[in-house]
Amino acid sequence: MPPPTVLIIGCGIAGPVLAILLKRKGYHPIVFEKVQALGDAGASLMLMPNGMKVLNLITPTPTILETHTPPTILWHGTASGHTLGKSPIPRTYKERYSQPAMGIKRTALNLHLKQTLLDNNIPLYEGYNLHDIQEHPSTNTVTAYFTNGESLSGSFLIGCDGIKSSTRNILLAKTGVKEGPPTFTGLMQIAGLSKRSESLRERGVSGMCNWYGAGAHVIAYPVSSTGDVSWAVTLSGRETEETWRAVSGGEELERRKGLLREKLAGFEDGVREMVEGAQRIISYGLFDRAEMRAEQWFSGRCVLVGDAAHPTSPHLGQGANQAFEDCYHLSRLLPDLTAEGADWPAVEAGLEGIFREFAELRQPRTAALVKEARHIGEQRVVLGGPELCRERDARIVAAWSDQEAVAEGLDRLYREPF
């Protein structure tokens, strides 16, 4: 009997990882990506130990760390550079959690995962934008239909197509739920890549740094072993399109830098130098979407993973990491078809139950983290005058003065998923 075909929608972060994990268990995954050719995308990701554990199953950590520097310091300070809190705890991540943290350019990770997918002889169809899904109970199959007129059937389908998931919209619509437009949070981010400013080297070449100002927050961390730094500025502002299109020159790049000069006027020189040094800038609005109940994550032949199931804002740095946790748990719950006595028809009969178990396991954790990320964003960007900024800064000092409590809070995130 040929292995069951799994249709995986999306070749960003979760799709390739899940495809490789499932192929090892005897499934036949096929990955579909809506863009014509994966290329330049976004700024960067901070992969935390919980996400690195799963990525290590696909790509051994030492291979990636040949060109990357894990952060060794967490630093929080005022816009002018006064320290509010500092911790060397990232140096202990490998010992505590078996994996370090690591900043990486999103494009580099996407292309690495795509190549790893191809190296594992897993079919990838680019330029396939999902249009519809039809489940066929009589034949125990599901068919994906694409806007290019193509279609393909398989045993089940996994939606890994991110925050603007077509899979999510289709599954909700089939249950009579129309997903409304996302809600603007009042915050936007402008992000870029630069070389670390010499004036910031006192924080440590591998420091993950946060600056808190009036109406603005800046985060920066290393994304290579050669001094490349990813930074993001969170600001309050008018509603901005939810897009990650980059600007790499001309009047628009200068306009965005001009906005940052105005908003970061009170920040220390190194921050402003870092921003000025960017040759490419991305800006995007931050939006909230309605929380999905566990039973909305799946149907008889389909299941959602990552931001398709639990879209989140970036303030907690757990979007990609939770997607990796999803990949691990879904692949763990799907039986190994290479094992002696494995019986796909028996597995197939309980497929919806497996999806339900996965969703009920993951939804409470991801929902709590989405809410926490939203709260962190609201706390970082303070409007209303110096007194509110002082109150925020005092909370940061109190939070980081108890290193044991800091470690306990990180344990809650990073000890998962195994």
UniProtKB/TrEMBL annotation:
SUPFAM superfamilies xref list: FAD/NAD(P)-binding domain
InterPro entries on file: FAD-bd, FAD-dep_Monooxygenase_BioMet, FAD/NAD-bd_sf
Gene3D superfamilies from the UniProt entry: FAD/NAD(P)-binding domain
Keywords linked to the UniProt accession: FAD, Flavoprotein, Monooxygenase, Oxidoreductase
Domain of life: Eukaryota
Positions of the FAD-binding domain: 5-335
Pfam families: FAD_binding_3
Molecular functions per Gene Ontology: FAD binding; monooxygenase activity
Record family assignment: Belongs to the paxM FAD-dependent monooxygenase family.
Stored PANTHER family: MONOOXYGENASE, PUTATIVE (AFU_ORTHOLOGUE AFUA_6G14510)-RELATED
Protein name: FAD/NAD(P)-binding domain-containing protein
Organism listed in the record: Aspergillus sclerotiicarbonarius (strain CBS 121057 / IBT 28362)
